[in-house]
Amino acid sequence: MDDRWLRRKNRLKVIRTVFELLVMIFAVVWVFLSLKSYKESRSNPSALPPANESTMIPSDLITEGYDSMGHASGTHFIALAYNGVVVKPIEGGKIVNLQAFKEQMQTLKASGYQTISQEDILRAYKNGANLPEKAMLLIFEDGINDSAIWVQPTLEACNYKATMCTYAENLSDTENLYVTGKSARELMDSSYWEMGSNGYRLSYINIFDRYENYFGHMNTAEFLKVHHYLRRDYNHYLMDFLRDENRLRQESVEEMEKRIEWDYGKMAELYNQDFGFVPSLYILMHSNTGAYGNDPLVSRKNEEMMQKVFGMNFNRQGTCLNMMDSSVYDLSRLQSRQYFSANHLMMRIWDDTGHQVMFRLGDEEQAKAWERLEGVAEYSDHRIILTSMPYGKGTIVLGKELPPDFELSVRLQGNVVGQQSISMKTDENGEGGVTVCLHNNCLYIYDPSGDAPIFELDLLEFDGGPYESVPENELAGKIACCEAIIAYDEDEARRAEAQTNLDYLNTLRVLSIQEGAEPFIPELDIDEQDDRQLRIQCSGSRISLWLDDRLIIDHLKVSEGRGTRLVLGSQVTMDNERFSQTNLSDDVYDAVFRDLRISSSIGPEVYSYAESVEETITNVGFVDRVIRIFRNLFK
After folding, report:
1. Backbone angles phi, psi at 494, to 5 degrees
2. Which domains does the chain have, with CATH numbers?
3. Of the candidates 336, 378, 394, which has an alpha carbon nearest to the alpha carbon of residue 586?
4. Which pLDDT tens digit goes with each residue over 393-444?
5. pTM flag (> 0.85)
6. How far, in Å, CA of 106 to CA of 635, rounded?
């Protein structure tokens, strides 16, 4: 009997080994084919799939009763800019994912926008030439090579032309990260591209951390390593005099002027060397200084040099509308961000221009389940993206009535800065209900009986923070500064000084929160995306609430409410300029409700717009599923 059991066990081992070997071979082949497909897609971008079609609705159905900020008349154009485009979404930041870019271009095309060239703009400003009614200049900043590869099929599909801006220093890039002189010429040969300039290089001066410690002057790599410890107290290298730790000038007026002249001269030299010409379009970094620099003397020199070298300059960021009564050297562009839905972008454009635009509706069947009161909602991919009006709200009401006892679950994926809310047992106008909302990284519950919240939870504390004290954060920033200089600076003496300072800093001991020091509370950023799993149980006048699978409220007594409706809400945070260095404010907010389910305690499901079990399984990698199956069989 023992021999039979042993032989059986050995056979099972052999079978399991063979199956695992087959699975491994299959996985290797699959990875090889995927890599091959990836390489082919990079060499042949037209192989990328088109953006999903979406039902669209005109803006006059959405914006009735609202006034836009822009009152465009006469000749004008809009300018939209992207810092880059990537295939897969990345959390936070400026880079837009490819699918979102396609949807934005598709919606712009449906709204009647057509791209214009730099020459069209120059003729309009210099000679009074007319532009199309919905003229648009499309700009890609920073010269990221992959951006050009991924977006060109969409440009071709929309018959759009774009400007690729580069830093002149990167034209000789050997790592294939940036558009080089050679690849730039190839882009211009395609007829879908023309060139622009972000300047000679990206570097920063006069850097002070949030505690006013002087970090000096840094190149891009150094700056990226310390930027989490900064606020807005720094300059791009062309925007000011070089200053010391006391904010006093380190150079004379003549030295400043020679430094700026050298940079513009170097730009012209490199562009002429690679292109045979200097691009007309220039973007002075940083934007929104009120002139062409943070110091009047620097501003005057920048103005002089840019007018010698370039034909136009984008000097502002945050609005898209450009009128002919402004200077061609004081143009403005709107930078689309990673968190912009297509409707978010179109709402910003409508607000600036007053144009009739289109908004995406998505799944019409899902849309029929809701009544729109304010803003606009898109129903797509098990998500309801509810876009607010500028400086206002977005509100939709579920058509079905809520039972007395129910359970609701949803993932809230809007940005941290702003408000996404769920109101229960309201009347048909969305009023008089109990409201649960996330607002600026806090959870609140409001009862219709009063204005103040009956419950509030700081989500930084919920997540385990604050994590460090103010002295600890200040010390960490100083250490990061030294490490950045040691790793990336080209000045040997500066690296040696940083090493000496680092050795000293590593001997310091500062007070922690536990020892009584002030907690460090990080400042919220408008780019920061939230993702919270919310579950609510309502039993008459009692509610229980789970956040990220943790019970935080158990049978809290609330008012009965005025009705039987459910309302989803979106609201922008007012006066949010403090949250971003480059995008000074955003007056539109996207609340994102994913996998919304509402079920009755005793009856059938009330509403569901969520992935089924089958869809969840389908979305798991095929190879991973095969490996799991075989491993489970032979455990």
Report:
1. -70, -35
2. 2-43+620-633 (no CATH), 47-201+237-352 (3.20.20.370), 364-464+525-603 (2.60.120.560)
3. 336
4. 999 999 999 999 999 999 999 999 999 999 999 998 889 999 999 999 999 9
5. yes
6. 50
